[in-house]
Amino acid sequence: MTVMSIGKAWEEAVAFVARERSLLFPVALLFVALPGLILQEMTPPELAGWTMNKGAMPDVPVSFWLSMLIGVILIWFGSLALFALALRPGISVGEALRLSLSRLPVLLGTAAAVLGLLFVILIVGAIVVVAFSMVAKPAGAALTMLLAVGLGGVMLFGSVRLLLLNPVVIDGNEGVVASLRHSWTLTRGHFWRLLGFLLVLTLLSAIVGSAAQVIFGLIGRLVAGADGARLTGGVAAAAVSTVVQVYMLVMLARLYRQAETR
Fold first, then answer.
1. Which ranges does the record mark as transmembrane (predicted)?
2. pTM for this structure?
C-alpha cells in the first residue's frame, strides 16, 4: 500500500500556491466563487427558510433548478481546471481550461453513475420499507430510520473513497467506469486519513467563512443597511472559502500524485 502523507501534501501545496497564485486564484474566483455567489443570491428566500426549518418544500421555479445545475457544472469545470494547473506545471490557463472542457463530460458521467446507483439503493430500500410497513407499521418506521442512516453512511463512505476522482479524470484519458475504479483503488487503505483531512478542511472553511461573513456583514450594515450586510458578508465568505478551497484542491492533487507513485 502506498504511503500517503497529509503533512507533505500541505507543505507542497503551500509552496505551489505561493508560486502560482496568479494563475490559480483568478480561475478559482471566476469559475468557483462567482457561480456559488450568484446561486446564493438567486436562492428564493422561502427555499432558504425551508432548508433551516424543513416542513413542506416550497414551490420553486424550474428556472432556479436549471440555474443551479448550470452553476454546479461551472464549479466542476473550474475545479478540473485548477487540478490541471496543479498537476501539470507549466501549463497555461487557456490550456487548463481547454483540458477541463474536454474531460468535463467524463466527470459528469461519473456523477450520473453514482447518483444512479444511490437512486437504485433508495428504491430497493423504499420497497423493503413498504413491504414491512404492510405487516407492522412500527417495523416500517424503524426501517425508514435505518435506511436514512445507512444511506447517509454509504454517501459519506463513497465520497471519501472517490475523493481523488477529479484529479484522476483530469490527469488521464480513462472513461467513466475506469475513472471511478481508478479513484476507488487509489484511496484503498486511506479512508480514515482522508476522512480526517476532509473534516478538518470543511470545518476550517466553515469557521473562517462564517467569521468573514459576520465581520464584513457588520461593516456592510453600517454602510448600506441590511441589504449591504447580506451582500458584503456573502462576498467576503465566498472569497475566503475560495482561498481555502484552492489550498484543498492543490493538496488533493499532491495526495493523488503520492498515491499514483509506486
1. 64-85, 106-135, 141-164, 191-219, 231-256
2. 0.86
For every one of its 262 residues, what pLDDT tens digit does the chain have, with 9 covering 90 and above?
Answer: 557 889 999 999 999 999 999 999 999 999 988 888 888 777 776 666 655 555 556 677 777 788 889 999 999 999 999 999 999 988 999 999 999 999 999 999 999 999 999 888 888 877 877 776 776 666 667 777 888 888 888 899 999 999 999 999 999 999 999 999 999 999 998 999 999 999 998 888 888 878 877 787 778 777 777 766 777 877 777 888 889 899 999 999 999 999 987 5
Residue 158 has, within 13 A of its CA and on its CB side, a CA count of: 15
Which residues, 6+ apart, have CB-to-CB distance to 125 below 8 Å?
143, 147, 150, 151
* Three cell numbers, residue 47: 427555499
User: And the C-alpha cell for 148?
Assistant: 436514512
Q: Using CA atoms, how far apart are residues 172 and 77, in angstroms rounded to an integer?
A: 16
Q: Which of 235, 260, 180 has the alpha carbon at shortest distance from 9?
A: 260
Phi-psi region for residue 200, left (φ > 0), alpha (ψ -120 to 50) or beta? alpha
Q: CA-to-CA distance for 117 and 256, rounded, in angstroms? A: 25
CB contact at 8 A, 239 and 32 = no
